[in-house]
Amino acid sequence: MRALSITVVLALISVCKAALPQLRFAWKQIDYTWDSPADRENAIKDGIFDQKNNFPVGLARWKNKVFVTVPRWKSGVASSLNYVDLDGPSDQLLKPYPSFKDNLVPDSAKAPPSNSSVISVFRVHVDPCDRLWVMDTGFADISGAGNLIVEPSIIIFDLNTDQLLHRYFLKPEDMKEDSFFANIVVDVDKNTCDNAFAYLSDLGGYGVVVYSLKQDASWRVSHHYFFFEPLFGSYNVAGIKFHWTDGVFSVALSEPRENGYRTAFFHAMSSTKEFCVSTELLRNYTKLDKSEAFHDFKLLGDRGENTQSSASYFDEKTKVLFYTQVNRDGVACWNSNKPYTPENNPIVITDPKLFEFTNDIKVDNESNLWMLSDKMPRFIYSNLDLNDINFRIFSISTTEAIVGTTCQ
Fold it and tell me: For 193-235, how does the pLDDT look when each residue is reduced to its tens digit (9 = 90+)?
C-alpha cells in the first residue's frame, strides 16, 4: 500500500511540475503564399484547393525554417511540404518547399509532374548534414477516393541550396498489401554524410524498411514487436471514440554507443509498450540468421494505461526519450539511464485545451523540443470548428521540459 502511495505522489508531482512551452505558431485554417489572388481562386474553382481539408501533422526545424507537412488526407490539399519563418508571425502563411510548382499536384494526377514533385508527406527529418529527408507516401485523397499517384519514395533536399539531391522509390518487396509509411528517421554522422541510413516505419504492413544512401538500396525488417496490441486499439480524444490498428509508428535513435551503432527505440502506435534493437542489426539484416536475430529485439517495458503514442524523439543532451501522448493531451518522457516503468514515464507537458492530439515532436540541434498539436480525430471523424484555433506549434528546451520530473 505504501509503494502504491509513493507511485501516486510521484505521478501527481510530475503533473504539477508540467512544463509550460512557448507557443510559436497557431492557425484556425491553413493557407499558402500563392503567387497571386487569381491563382488561389482558380485553384479553388478547379478543386485543387479546399481550405478546410488542409491539415498539418508533421514538423521539423532547420535554422530559420520550421517545416510543416500537410498530407493529402482529403481532397484539395494545395501543398504537402512547406515551411514557416521562425521569426515570422504566429499565423503566417505556409511557404511551399522547395516551390509551389513542386507541390501543386491535382488529386487525380496519374503521375508526378517532375522528379522533384512532392505528393503527400506526413513526416520529415533534418539531418546534421543540412539535408531534409522526406517520406512521400505518393497517395492523394487518402481517406476519400484514394489515388496512388506514384510509389512511396524517399526525397532528399539540400537545405543550403533547396535543390533535390536524390529520390529513391521503394521496391515491391519492401512493401505489403496494407503498407503505409508515415515516419522516417535518419542515422548519420556529420563527418560521414554519405554513409546514411534511413529507417521507415510501416504502420500498416507492420515492418521497418531500411535504406542505405551509400548503397542506394533498401530492405525490409520483420518482427512480432512491430504489430499493434489488440487491447490498445481503442482511443478517446476530446470525447471522440475511435479504433486504430496502427503498428510500428516511430523509431527514435540514441547517441552512438561505443561500437559506433545506436539503439533504435520503437513502438506501435496502438500499444503501450516500448522496444529497442541495435542499429547494427537493422543495417546488416540481410546478412543475418533471421531466427537468431529475432532474439536481439528487446522489450524495454510498459508505460501504463492510455499511453498510446505516435511520434517519439531522443535528445542526446539529456539522454531522454520524448514521446507524444495522444490519449493524455501532451508529451511524456523517459530517462534512458533508468528502468522503463510507468513511474519513470511521467507526462511533462499537458493541457487538454492546447494539446488535444499531439501529433508530432522533434528535437533540433540546439536541444529544443518542438511539438505540433492538432485535432486529428475531429478532422477525420467529425468536423473542425473553423472559428477556433485548430493547429499549434510549441517549443521548449529539453532541459527545461524535464525539470522536477523523474526524467531529470
Answer: 999 999 999 999 999 999 999 999 999 999 999 999 999 999 9
Strand 312-315 versus strand 320-325 pairing type? antiparallel
* Residue 349 and residue 336 in contact, taking contact as beta carbons nearer than 8 Å: no
Please say whether the dihedral angle defined by the alpha carbons of residues 349, 351, 353 and 357, taken in this order, is positive or negative.
positive
C-alpha 325: how far from chain center: 13
Contacts of 166 (CB under 8 A, 6+ apart): 154, 155, 156, 213, 216
Contact 216, 168 (CB under 8 A): yes
Nearest to 336 by CA among 230, 247, 408, 245: 408
Integer Cα distance of 88 and 82 in angstroms: 14
Strand partners, 153: 136, 169
Task: For residue 98, say if its preceding peptide bond is cis, omega within 30 degrees of 0.
Answer: yes
d(CA 37, CA 392): 26
* pLDDT greater than 70 at residue 4: no
Are 348 and 332 in contact by the 8 Å Cβ rule? The answer is yes
Q: Which among 253, 264, 127 has a CA at the least distance from the CA of 192?
A: 127
d(CA 65, CA 255): 25
pLDDT of residue 115: 94
Residue identified by cell 533536399 is 157
Tens of pLDDT, residues 329-380:
999 999 999 999 999 999 999 999 999 999 999 999 999 999 999 999 999 9
Give Dmax (Cα) for the chain.
Answer: 69
Ranges of beta strands (E only) in 269-356 are: 273-278, 298-302, 312-315, 320-325, 330-335, 347-350
Helix (H) or strand (E) holding 369: strand 368-374
Q: Which three cell numbers stand for residue 378?
A: 475531429
Alpha-carbon span 137 to 153, nearest angstrom: 7
Angstrom distances, CA of residue 158 to CA of 161, 164, 309: 6, 6, 31
Taking residue 93's Cβ as centre, other Cβ atoms within 10 Å add up to: 14
Q: Are 185 and 133 in contact (CB under 8 A)?
A: no
